[in-house]
Design goal:
It is built from 3 helices and 2 strands. It has about 110 residues and is mainly alpha-helical. The chain has one domain: Aspartate Aminotransferase, domain 1. The protein has a two-stranded antiparallel ribbon. The protein is flat and about 60 Å long.
Length: about 110
């Protein structure tokens, strides 16, 4: 707390316990069989699955963040036209294709997470 006071020049520092979910237009996607409770839980998520879906989405014209540690964003510009529908379709197509490949044993790390 002393460091926080020194860095901010403030006498009072408010500390929140629990999870902070951030701005509603930012979200993250991780594939795991359990709900992450802290940042370090990312290490046990299924990175290959995320990366394969991201590549599939890129092939379909969507540009997801290639690093699953980074947030995705939604903004007002996405409200115009069918942008959201196209991204959701790209995600659904990619997810189906990757899960099919995983079922055939073609996805590296298919047994993890």
């Amino acid at each position: 707390m002393r460091i926080a006071r020194a860095l901010t020049g403030r006498d009072r520092i408010v500390k929140f316990e629990g999870q902070y979910h951030g701005h509603p237009s930012m979200f993250g996607i991780m594939f795991t069989d359990r709900v992450p409770s802290e940042y370090r839980d990312w290490a046990t998520t299924h990175h290959e699955l995320y990366e394969a879906i991201a590549v599939g989405m890129q092939l379909r014209g969507a540009m997801p963040e290639p690093d699953s540690r980074e947030p995705w964003f939604i903004c007002e510009a996405h409200a115009e036209g069918d942008t959201v529908d196209r991204v959701l379709d790209a995600f659904a197509w990619s997810l189906d294709a990757v899960l099919d490949a995983r079922a055939r044993g073609e996805l590296d790390g298919a047994d993890s997470a």
